[in-house]
Design brief:
It is a single chain. By secondary structure, the protein is α+β, with helices and mostly antiparallel strands. It has two domains: 157 residues, 2-Layer Sandwich (Ribosomal Protein S5, domain 2), CATH 3.30.230.10; 119 residues, Alpha-Beta Plaits (2-Layer Sandwich). Strands 1, 2, 3, 4, 5, 6 and 10 form a seven-stranded mixed sheet that branches. It has a four-stranded antiparallel sheet with strand order 11-12-8-13. Helix 1 runs parallel beside helix 2 and helix 2 packs across helix 3.
Length: 281
């Protein structure tokens, strides 16, 4: 087998609580993450010449060592002492800088895909250790669960059961937000905040709606008032709840069914917006 096609799903944050700033500059968080049916597609190919080549159908995506898929391939080849050439082509559908985890998911798909393609036989635990070296969100996409509670900087994962299907209208307003900028401007009120007990099982939609919270919205709102406008519009369109995902800029609305989610997209038909209907995995 010389090539493998892998799917890299997006995520949303149903809860994102900022607990404290750490001595290393990162923040301790508690977040419930949910994988959703919006995907990048990666074609991984073994090539005759050594080295890593990344291409993408989106010209705005870097194809050098700034690309997390590139870094994932480099890390795996180095760790496993494999002298092979690897080509990675990314068919990009998840917007970059959107709070949907597209780059992290691409990195995770590269690690898990190359593990299979190159017959490295690394365990999930070993892949998780590699993933956190690339980025805090990468382990979640390696983790073999559709939803999880992420703690620490996001690398400490435990399973969450969301047993009710979530239909989502996802709105990307056409601009990216720097995750570093958001966290640099996040002012945690106290460094003595204790971890908050979070439910791990959800059988009804109302219990999911009850946990919708993103502490980073207060930072983003000051610079990007469009986020709150999108949230209000989604609610007016019939969403049961709406929230910014991660550090933004995407906003999702939760709907009762696919039809109503699809119908809501008609309110966001501007040249700058990119809109998607997706469901929880």
């Amino acid at each position: 087998m010389n090539e493998l096609t892998v799917q890299a799903p997006a995520k949303i944050n149903l809860t994102l609580k900022i607990l404290r700033k750490r001595a290393d500059g990162y923040h301790d968080i508690q977040s419930i993450l949910q994988k959703v049916s919006l995907y990048d597609t990666l074609l991984l190919t073994c090539t005759p010449l050594q080295g890593i080549t990344v291409t993408a159908d989106d010209p705005s995506i870097p194809t050098d060592a700034r690309n997390l898929a590139y870094r994932a391939a480099d890390l795996l080849l180095t760790q496993q002492k494999i002298a092979r050439g690897i080509s990675i082509h990314i068919k990009k559908r998840i917007p970059a800088g959107a709070g949907l985890g597209g780059g992290s998911s691409d990195a995770a798909a590269t690690l898990t895909g190359l593990n299979k393609l190159l017959r490295c036989n690394l365990t999930e635990a070993e892949l998780l250790k590699l993933g956190v070296q690339i980025g805090a969100d990468v382990p979640f996409f390696i983790y073999d669960k559709p939803a999880a509670l992420a703690e620490g900087i996001g690398e400490q994962l435990s399973p969450v059961k969301i047993q009710v299907p979530l239909w989502l209208a996802i709105i990307f307003p056409g601009f990216s937000i720097s995750t570093k900028w958001v966290y640099d401007n996040c002012r945690v009120l106290t460094n003595k905040v204790k971890n908050i007990r979070i439910c791990r099982s959800f059988k009804q939609l109302n219990t999911v709606l009850h946990i919708l919270r993103n502490d980073l919205e207060i930072v983003v709102d000051q610079q990007y008032p469009e986020i709150q406008i999108i949230k209000r519009t989604l609610i007016q369109a019939g969403a049961c709840g709406a929230l910014m995902s991660g550090s933004g800029s995407s906003v999702f609305g939760i709907f009762a069914d696919e039809h109503h989610a699809q119908e809501a997209l008609t309110l966001f038909g501007t040249p700058t917006n990119r809109v998607f209907v997706a469901h929880s995995l």
